């Protein structure tokens, strides 16, 4: 059966406009938040200054580690629907060793029992109020749709350690200086995340790993102000911004956080361990 040129022309016109209609519908369909959000820049570092030591107190030695810092510039094109998203930083502790030795008497240690015993692989490092976020000031930004313009913002966070360690054995009434060494080694994973406030949908946008180590040698026989010396490291390893994102463990999103779950133990040279400060949670 032969088809006339007029019929072929009509067929091509119909196909053409159908194709144009499909193209228009694809172009006009708004992108989802998942497809449209973009991270323009991520910066992460640990300050180059060494850990500082403070011997101003006759009761405790204090030290302050350099700060870990992370920031990200984020772009969110117009949000068509009535959606609310929060973008920000979530952090979890993956490993903790924190030992304070007192000569031949024993040592005290801050411990996370479930992490120590391998029951969990990470624990939330939230501020303890705004779960799962590390904080709710510079650390997060909330976008409430619908929006008509691009939304650009920066979210940033910082973290460091500033503990106090008793000169004397923590389970003794005596304040005689016997502290001889401090060792600390902690690892963290920090995620840049977007969470839908209605559904709980979670998008991991960036993953950062970092570690803080220190060794302080102490001579308790020396005068106050001359006892402690930073051995290593003078400069910390710089954080890693991962090429491939990691999933967030469930424990990193919920209570308890590391501060509330940690316990201070006294582990004598001989005898059973003693709980000095129980967990808050």
From TrEMBL:
Signal peptide: 1-25
Superkingdom classification of source: Eukaryota
Keyword Signal among record annotations: yes
Swiss-Prot/TrEMBL keywords: Signal
Alphabetical list of PANTHER family matching this protein: PROTEIN FAM78A
Name of the protein in its database record: Uncharacterized protein
Species annotation: Alosa alosa (allis shad)
Higher taxonomy: Eukaryota, Metazoa, Chordata, Craniata, Vertebrata
